[in-house]
Structures are given as structure tokens and as C-alpha cells.
Write a structure and sequence with these properties.
This protein has a single domain, classed as MOB kinase activator (Butyryl-CoA Dehydrogenase, subunit A, domain 3, Up-down Bundle). Helices cover 52% and strands 2% of the residues. It is built from seven helices and two strands, in the order H-H-H-E-E-H-H-H-H. Helix 3 packs antiparallel against helix 6 and helix 4 packs across helix 5. It is globular. It starts with 26 loop residues before the first helix and ends with a helix.
Length: 219
């Protein structure tokens, strides 16, 4: 969340894509404020739970926007190290490689560099978040029937950016003294997707050891 990054200085103001804002005064904005307040308490397992009386779709929507903004910021700090040369394929360690397809513009998965893949991915996510029929921002406008499956696809893809940063760029993250932000952000993300069972376990395999370590600290 935004407060996690307030101590980093000017570097963190550089986002990879424009920040997605939730309109002030809206119910979703209130939910975001609630999320920030509970996160501040330090108990992440509790912070991710659906607040009493709230709509699950809306809670997932608000948090998905927030995770997009966080990853956007985290990746924005290391873009100069993630280049066509250093990362000619989109990978998360030697065993996992990702090829891009979005089902509409690019139907057949293509092999591309990590910066290209992440650009495709973040642009695609942005398009979903900006689609009022998928992510309605107005009160009383219902979420579509396929909302949950779209949200799951978004989160599955955002996970890949975390996985790439951890596997290929953790040294740069350490040099920039950003590891506490990365770890807190990722822990929040993982606890959230675990709470609502939003990403298949197999998809999480590239960071399984880290996920277990983060979880065990909280038991």
C-alpha cells in the first residue's frame, strides 16, 4: 500500500505504468482506507480478511487495483536493470519461463524478453482495470458473472512479476534497499490470494520456498 513506500524518497515515485486511482469518496475508496488501516496494525492474516458485511467481489477488486499499483511501483524501481540484454526471456529462475498471450491481440503464446512481457502484462492488466463493465467503480453497478475468473487471471499474471523480480533482480533490490518493501508487498499479496484461494498452487511453484518461509513466520 502507498504508506509502505513513503520512506523511499524520489526513486519510488517512478512507476512503470500510470498509477490506477480509486475515486475519493467512493465506497471502494473507503474499503481501501479500511485495508490501509488494518495493514497498519501489522497482522497481515487479519488484514486480508473480508470485512464484515462487505461484498467479496468489491473487496477483491479494490485489492487487485492496489496490488497492481504496488507491483507497478516495485518494478518501476528496477526497470533499468531489466533489459532486453539482461533478461532476454521472461523467467523466474532456470526452471520457469513465461510466454505471452492475452487471448485477443496475441492468441498464440510468444516468447519475448522480460521487459517486453511485463509491458504486455501490465498494459493488459491496466486495460482490465479501466473496463467499467469488469471493474465497475459506480455504486450499485453489479460485477459481471466472469469477474472472479478475470481477477484470478490478473493476480496469476501479477505474481509472475514478483517471481521475476525475486529470481532475477533481488541483488538490485538489495542495493536499492527496497527488500523490506518487496517482502511486505509480496507477503500481503500471498496472504490475500491464499485467503480467497485465487491462484493455483502450481502457479506459485517458482516462489514456493519463500511462500512457506513467509507463512511459517506468521504461525
Amino acid at each position: 500500500l502507498s504508506f509502505l513506500f513513503s520512506t523511499v524518497g524520489s526513486r519510488s515515485s517512478k512507476t512503470f505504468k500510470p498509477k490506477k486511482n480509486i475515486p475519493e469518496g467512493s465506497h471502494q475508496y473507503e474499503l481501501l482506507k479500511h485495508a490501509e488501516a488494518t495493514l497498519g496494525s501489522g497482522n497481515l492474516r487479519q488484514a486480508v480478511m473480508l470485512p464484515e458485511g462487505e461484498d467479496l467481489n468489491e473487496w477483491i477488486a479494490v485489492n487487485t487495483v492496489d496490488f497492481f499499483n504496488q507491483i507497478n511501483m516495485l518494478y518501476g524501481t528496477i526497470t533499468e536493470f531489466c533489459t532486453e540484454t539482461s533478461c532476454s526471456v521472461m523467467s523466474a529462475g532456470p526452471r520457469y519461463e513465461y510466454h505471452w498471450a492475452d487471448g485477443t491481440n496475441i492468441k498464440k503464446p510468444i516468447k519475448c524478453s522480460a521487459p517486453k512481457y511485463i509491458d504486455y502484462l501490465m498494459t493488459w492488466v491496466q486495460d482490465q482495470l479501466d473496463d467499467e463493465t469488469l471493474f465497475p467503480s459506480k455504486i450499485g453497478v453489479p460485477f459481471p458473472k466472469n469477474f472472479m475468473s478475470v481477477a484470478k487471471t490478473i493476480l496469476k499474471r501479477l505474481f509472475r512479476v514478483y517471481a521475476h523480480i525475486y529470481h532475477q533482480h533481488f541483488d538490485s533490490v538489495m542495493q536499492l534497499q527496497e527488500e523490506a518493501h518487496l517482502n511486505t508487498s509480496f507477503k500481503h499479496f500471498i496472504f490475500f490470494v491464499q485467503e480467497f484461494n485465487l491462484i493455483d498452487r502450481r502457479e506459485l511453484a517458482p516462489l514456493q520456498d519463500l511462500i512457506e518461509k513467509l507463512g511459517s513466520k506468521d504461525r
